[in-house]
Amino acid sequence: MDRKILLTNDDGVYSNGIWAAYEALSEIADVTVVAPATQQSAVGRSISIFEPIRATKISVNGVPAYAVGGKPTDAVIIGLFALDLQPDLVVSGVNIGENLSFESIMTSGTVGAALEAANHGTPSVAFSLQVWDQGDKFDDPRHVGSSFEEAKTVVRDVCERIFARGFPAKTDVVNVNIPSKVEGGYEVTTLARKLFHTGVERRLDPRGRPYYWINGPLVEDAEEGTDVHAIRKGNVSVTPITLDCTAAGADDGMRDLLK
């Protein structure tokens, strides 16, 4: 096939989600899987610069893949520069659990991998699947109970549209979030501010010393037009993301500060 896709994720090379994406995409493109060897959720765009990175060629269900001993960003860099794959598109996911809001995309390894690819000039898409059972995010990603059938349809459709029509202008990453049950269609969204009500739970170890778990429930909803609200309605949220974190419209206030 003429079209080439580098497929990665943050749940690890054995995750059900990445192989659902492979099934969706292998009929329309030449797909190479290069993904972390182990679970790397919530590492954001961190990168391994103080230790060597191993990329081991493996086979999953008879399909060759590369298991990278590092972060999602490391997997992308290995695919682009060590393996010299020269993909037309980098796809990250399907992540087990939604990646919505400022809060989530700043920590998401799924989105982090896509941002890394975009930073090197390769168009990229991140796909995430909402799960109602939050425990699914922490279970073995090889045995997650969520169905990926609707997600596979979305993954293939979005990527086929990009191949046919080109990557959206002024966009570095397309962040796609798929509800656990799709009730509507696509909705172009902005990022909500938060996905979780952040909390900290204090516990004591057997020696009486405190330790902490960061936790907190999902926010119930957000403003109309945001990714969180779209998912709550059952729509597929599609958010254009840019690498440029410059605060638009803040110049005057900054100049006043520095007078």
From TrEMBL:
Ranges where the Survival protein SurE-like phosphatase/nucleotidase domain occurs: 5-194
Residues that, per the record, bind a divalent metal cation: 10-11, 41, 95
Subcellular location: Cytoplasm
Pfam families xrefs: SurE (PF01975)
Transmembrane segments: none
Reaction(s) the record says it catalyses: a ribonucleoside 5'-phosphate + H2O = a ribonucleoside + phosphate
PANTHER family assigned: 5'-NUCLEOTIDASE SURE, PHOSPHATASE, PUTATIVE (AFU_ORTHOLOGUE AFUA_4G01070)-RELATED
NCBIfam families cross-referenced by the UniProt entry: PRK00346.2-1 (NF001491), surE (TIGR00087)
Function (record text): Nucleotidase that shows phosphatase activity on nucleoside 5'-monophosphates.
Protein name stated in the entry: 5'-nucleotidase SurE
Species classification: Archaea, Methanobacteriati, Methanobacteriota, Stenosarchaea group, Methanomicrobia
